[in-house]
C-alpha cells in the first residue's frame, strides 16, 4: 500500500494542468460555491455545539441557542470537572474499548487475511466461505441478543463493547488483497526453505512490512469503536460500564445522576441539580466526544481514503 | 489445463506442516466467526418456534431446541397487523430514496469536484465534508437538537423573530421525512465521494485531450467518457446498497428523533420496530420473525441484483 499511497499522492499533486480543457470560469465559481456551502453545513453544527457549551445559562434562557451568546461562561466545563469521577470513568471505558478493540481486531483480521492470501493453504476454500457468508446474511437482532446474553454471557461486561465490533469481513478482504498484492511470494518461500515456521514468518516478516495496512485497518476500527453507542444501548445496564457515547445518550437521565454523584461541597442535591447548567453541559459532553476525533481526523484521513479505495478494488 | 491440474491435485491431498501452523494462526478468528456470526444465524430458528425459557439454568440453545415448532405462525402478524404494513412501507420508501440519492449525489459531486480549478480548495472541502461520517448518531442528535429544540433551538428563535409561530419539531410528522433524508445524505456524502473520486482520478487524461481536439464540450466529456468509465464502480455500489433495502439505520430513525412517539408514523422502520419488540416483550418471537425476513430478503436482494447485473453486463457483477 505504501506504493499505492505514493501513486495516489503523485496523482493528486496539481500536475501541470492543461488550462485549455477545463470548465468555464463561471461554472468553476458555481461549483466552488456549492462545495463551500456543503463544507460549511458539515462544520457549522460542530462549531455551534462548541459555542453553546461556552454560553452562559442566562444567555440561553434569554435568547436560546445562538451563535452570538450575550455572555460566555465556563460553568458547563466546571460542572463536568466536578463530575470527573464519573466522566473520567466513561472516558476510561471508551479508551480501553478503543485501544483494546483495535489491538484484538488487528490481530484477528490480519491473521485471517494473511491465511486467505496464501494460495497453497489447504483450508483457504472453506475459510473464504466462512468469511463471505456473514457479508450477505446475518442472524438478526433478536437471536444475536439472546446469544450474547445467554450463550456467550457477555452482557454488562466490557467484552460486549469490544468483541462484536472487532472483525468485519470487509476488513478481512482488504487485508487479503493487500497481502496478495504487496508481499512477494519469494520472500515467504525462502523463509520456509530456511526453516522458519509460518508463525515466525508472519510476525517477523509479514507484519513489519505491512504497517500502512495495519494503520488503515486500525483507524477504521478505532473510529467505529469510539463512536459505538448501540452495544451500550442493547447490552449495558450498569452505569459503571457506560462509555462516553452511552453517557451522552442517557444524558437526560444522567443529569440527575450526575447531580447525585457530584462533589457537592455541602450544598443540597436538589439545589445543586437546579443550579446546573444543563443545556451547556450536554453540549460540552458532545464536545468531549467529538474533540478527540476532530483532533486526530485530519492526520489519518489519508489512511481512511486508501482503505476505502482498496476495499472497493474488485478481484 | 488438465495436465497442469494433476500435480497440484496430488499436492493438495497432503496436509503439510505449513497448513497446521496457518490453522493455529487463524484459529482465534474462526472461533470469533463462529461465536459472533454463526451462533446468531443458528438462533434464527427462533422465527419458526414458540421460544420459551423452559429451563432457566440452561443456555439459549437448549431452550431453543426444546421449544415447540410453530411453522409460520410468527410471520402472520407481519401481514395482518397494521403496524407490519406501515413498517414495510416506511422501510422500503426511505431506502429507495436513500439508495437513489446515495448514488446520484456523490457521483454528481465527484464529477463537479474533479473540475474545480483549485485542487487544494477541493481537497479542503472534501476533508470537511467527510467529517459528519465520523460523528456517531448520538452526537448528530445533539447537533440537530441545537437547531430544532422547540423552546431554545436556533430555527424557532429565527421564526419567532420573523413574527411566525414556533414549530414543535419533535411532534410534527410532516417535516421529518425531509429532515431524515437530508441527514442521511449529509452524513454519507463524503464517504460516497471517495470511491468515485478515486475512479475519476484514475481515468487516463489522454482520453479527454482527444475528445477536446474533436470538439467535445466539458459536459459531453463527462457524459460520454467519465460516466461510462465509472459504470462498473457505480453498479458495484448499487449492488451493495441493494442488500440494505430491508435494513434501516436505527441511529437515524430512533436516536435523532429522540425516540419520539408522536413521530411514530414516519419513523417506525424495521430496526426500530425490532428494537421495540425486544425491549417490550419478554419472548420476542415476532421480532425474530421480522429479523429473519430481513436477513433472507436482504441476502436474496444482493444475489438477485448481482444476477441481473451479470446477465446485462458480466464485467460489473461482484460475486
Task: Indicate the topology.
The complex is a heterodimer of chains A (315) and B (319).
Chain A lengths: L1 H11 L12 H29 L3 H7 L11 H8 L1 H34 L6 H13 L3 H12 L7 H8 L2 H14 L2 H9 L4 H9 L4 H16 L3 H6 L8 H6 L1 H11 L7 H7 L2 H34 L4
Helix pairs in contact in A: 2-17, 4-17, 5-6, 5-8, 5-9, 5-12, 12-17, 15-16
Chain B lengths: L1 H12 L3 H26 L6 E2 L9 H7 L1 E2 L3 H8 L1 H32 L5 H12 L6 H12 L5 H8 L14 H26 L3 H9 L4 H25 L7 H6 L8 H4 L2 H11 L4 H28 L7
Antiparallel strand pairs in B: 1-2
Helix pairs in contact in B: 4-5, 4-15, 5-9, 5-11, 6-9, 9-11, 11-15, 14-15
CATH architecture of chain A: Orthogonal Bundle
Which regions of chain B have little confidence, pLDDT < 50, spanning 5+ residues? 1-6
For the record, give the distance between the C-alpha atoms at the N and C termini of chain B, rounded to a whole number. 24 Å
CATH homologous superfamily label of chain A: MetI-like
How would you characterize the largest beta sheet of chain B?
2 strands, antiparallel
What letter string, H or E per element, gives the SSE order of chain B?
HHEHEHHHHHHHHHHHH
Computed CA radius of gyration of chain B, to the nearest angstrom: 26 Å
Report the major sheet of chain A: none
Order of helices and strands of chain A: HHHHHHHHHHHHHHHHH
CATH class of chain A: Mainly Alpha
Mean pLDDT of chain B: 84
The number of helical runs of chain A is 17
Strand portion of chain B: under 5%
List keywords for this structure.
heterodimer, A: 315 residues, mainly alpha, MetI-like fold, 17 helices, 0% strand, B: 319 residues, 2 domains, 15 helices, 71% helix, 1% strand
Walk me through the structure.
The complex is a heterodimer of chains A (315) and B (319). By secondary structure, chain A is mainly alpha-helical. Chain A has a single domain (74-311), classed as Orthogonal Bundle (MetI-like fold). Chain A is 74% helix and 0% strand. Chain B is mostly helical and 319 residues long. Chain B folds into two domains: 2-69, no CATH class; 76-316, MetI-like (MetI-like fold). Chain B is built from 15 helices and two strands. Chain B has a two-stranded antiparallel sheet. In chain B, helix 4 (73-80) crosses helix 15. Chain B starts with a helix and ends in a 7-residue tail after the last helix. At the A-B interface, helix 1, helix 2, helix 5, helix 6 and helix 7 of A face helix 2, helix 3, helix 5, helix 6 and helix 7 of B.
